From TrEMBL:
Name this protein carries in UniProt: S1 family peptidase
Organism for this UniProt entry: Ruegeria sp. PrR005
SMART domains the record matches: Tryp_SPc
SUPFAM superfamilies: Trypsin-like serine proteases
InterPro entries named among the record's database cross-references: Glutamyl_endopeptidase, Peptidase_S1_PA, Peptidase_S1_PA_chymotrypsin, Peptidase_S1A, Trypsin_dom, TRYPSIN_HIS
Keyword presence, Signal: yes
Keywords: Signal
Region (Disordered): 266-294
Gene3D superfamilies, per database record: Trypsin-like serine proteases (2.40.10.10)
The keyword Signal appears for this protein: yes
Length: 294
């Protein structure tokens, strides 16, 4: 059975540091990852590059650290002067499993060595209408693990330029990730090249190097004159000794999230009304793989 952990980086002990619950994962995710291992062998991922210096990080100042209620952090990216894209599970308290008041989350744009290019508290947050925090890692949970945060005030800084978003990359295409993590909490790192190993039903399996604190990190496509965000890091996994990252789908999700911010649902503030969609069925136990719970 796989062992599950979040990649949210805590500042204080969390339940994930205690004995873990084991759960079910979709067999097809494992099958996809195993089948795609030769892709990694043919196109090896590049090493992490620290963006600690001003010159190295200049292009990536719209990626920032999300400090969550003084207890931990995730990674987020600006896609409009007042909108930050991240993972939905970053909005939840890991102990109580309750939604965190979004006004207790702060976006630190371009955070490096104790200073940010801009500091903005969050005003509102919406997550994918089909996202559910409880339960085990599944295709549904990873695919829907996307949230949009509206800042209290827009960031009007000529050095912090919001990123555009793009279409989901193809299998075999190389993408990059800019992320913070527990061992690089004071400056982000860039992995410019990591192949997309597999793609199915809105979930990306990538050979990117992510760790605790990388939740919500933007996945970039470099196909064009400038990088575009094509996915969001949801979880990490280990398959046959190879470390992989699982990415959430954007697609129509951004349209839904923006609509949710403009017309919040009164029955569930900060969350879009649930819609009916056909979803893949069937779960199974899997041995020989570790999946990391977001």
């Amino acid at each position: 059975m796989p062992r599950l952990r979040p990649i949210f980086a805590p500042r204080i002990p969390y339940p994930e540091q205690q004995p873990l619950q084991e759960g079910h994962v979709y067999k097809w995710i494992i099958t996809l990852a195993l089948a795609a291992l030769p892709v990694v062998a043919q196109a090896q991922a590049t090493r992490l590059q620290s963006l600690e210096t001003t010159d190295a990080g200049r292009e990536w100042l719209a990626v920032g650290r999300l400090d969550v209620d003084g207890t931990g952090f995730c990674t987020g990216a600006l896609i409009a002067p007042d909108l930050v894209l991240t993972a939905a599970h970053c909005l939840y308290d890991k102990r109580t499993k309750q939604r965190i008041d979004p006004t207790r989350i702060e976006f630190l744009a371009g955070w490096r060595r104790g200073a940010a290019s801009a500091y903005r508290p969050v005003r509102r947050a919406v997550e994918h209408p089909d996202y559910r925090f409880d339960g085990d890692v599944s295709a549904d949970r990873v695919r829907n693990d996307v949230a949009l945060l509206q800042l209290q005030q827009p960031i009007r800084n000529t050095t912090v330029i919001p990123f555009e978003t793009g279409n989901q990359p193809r299998t075999g295409e190389s993408v990059g990730v800019v992320s913070y993590a527990h061992d690089r909490a004071e400056a982000p790192s860039l992995q410019r090249l990591c192949p997309v190993m597999a793609r199915q039903q809105g979930v990306l399996v990538m050979s990117c190097d992510v760790d605790f604190g990388s939740s919500g990190a933007p996945v970039f496509s470099f196909d064009g004159d400038h990088p575009r965000i094509v996915s969001v890091v949801s979880a990490k996994a280990e398959v046959e000794g190879a470390r992989v990252a699982l990415g959430s789908s954007l697609g129509e999700t951004l349209v839904l999230l923006k609509a949710g911010l403009e017309n919040p649902a009164p029955a569930a503030p900060g969350t879009l009304p649930r819609v009916n969609r056909s979803t893949p069925g069937g779960t199974g136990t899997v041995s020989g793989a570790k999946f990391v719970k977001p």
